[in-house]
Amino acid sequence: MADGRSPSGFHSPAAIREAMRRLRRLVPPILLGAVLLVSGCGKPQGAGTGAPAPPDFSKRKIRVVTTIGMIREMAAQVGGDRVEVKGLMGPGVDPHLYKASEGDVIRMASADIVFYNGLHLEGKMSDIFERMKRRIRTVAVTDGIDRERLLRPSEFAGAYDPHVWFDVTLWMEAVKTVEGALIEMDPTHGDLYRANGERYLERLAELDRYVRREAEKVPPRRRLLCTAHDAFNYFGRAYGFQVRGLQGISTVAEAGAADIQSLARLIVENGIPAVFV
């Protein structure tokens, strides 16, 4: 490629050198010699700072880094062949407890944009994303969702429940945020992103209709969902299920003996055939 980077990833020698250059602006030098964390200082780019001119994305792909898999799929679907998407968290990874590795920091520093869920889903990494805004564009895909539609569990310290993808109609709003960000970065291909976004929204709308049809097949008195991690409240609200969980909204919380006994009684009394873990 013209910029010396591998078309299949962010880790070509040229990309790593560029990542390290950008990291030096993000973190104090002493941290670069130990654990690489995007947590430090640096002035915003702009006139007089010596920062390079913004890339012309009409001539190359946008390098995208995402956190959870649902956002990775969303970015790939909307961006199509105009984006190169790398995800930080694979299947089975708990985003609440996730800690960035040195490789993750290099991937983020060499990205053009980072999409993350927000609403504190990614735990302490949210602070990293906020600090990165000084040099690298970071976007919380939930920012465009009307806060009136979000749940605020009393046990979650006044914060919002971040598991919005379980209500497909809410996740559709996140798609629009990704679409808008890509169009802003690469307006030359705006029509492509709009068309891709529309197709993906149509698929999600059909998914929402499918879930509603299938839920209707379950008698209302049987619509009780038991789970170890209380992440299904948006699903319950959207599709008519009562949700009972052990750990609460975040996996940081721990269930006590009384919680386990209470849930066990509920399962026995209602003849619950399955528990999602």
Give a verbal description of the structure:
By secondary structure, the chain is α/β, with parallel strands linked by helices. It is 40% helix and 9% strand. It has nine helices and six strands; from the N terminus they run ααβαβαβαβααβαβα. The strands form two sheets. It has a four-stranded parallel beta sheet with strand order 2-1-3-4, sandwiched between helices. It has a two-stranded parallel ribbon with strand order 5-6. The protein starts with 12 loop residues before the first helix and ends in a 7-residue tail after the last helix.
Protein topology:
Layout: H1 13-26, H2 29-32, E1 62-66, H3 69-79, E2 83-87, H4 102-109, E3 113-116, H5 125-132, E4 137-140, H6 168-185, H7 190-216, E5 224-227, H8 233-239, E6 242-245, H9 257-270
Parallel strand pairs: 1-2, 1-3, 3-4, 5-6
Task: Describe the structure in brief.
The protein has 277 residues and is of the alpha/beta class.
Helix/strand order: HHEHEHEHEHHEHEH
Query: Helical segment tally?
Result: 9
Mean pLDDT: 81
The total number of structural domains is: 2
Oligomeric description of these chains: single chain
- What would the CATH topology of the largest domain be? Rossmann fold
Query: Main sheet: which strands, in order across?
Result: 2-1-3-4
Strand percentage: 5-15%
The share of residues in helices is 40-55%
CATH architecture of the largest domain: 3-Layer(aba) Sandwich
CATH superfamily of the largest domain: Nitrogenase molybdenum iron protein domain
**What spatial form do the alpha-carbon principal axes imply?**
globular
Number of strands: 6
Q: What's the CATH class label of the largest domain?
A: Alpha Beta
User: Which structural class matches the secondary elements?
Assistant: alpha/beta
Distance between the termini: 45 Å
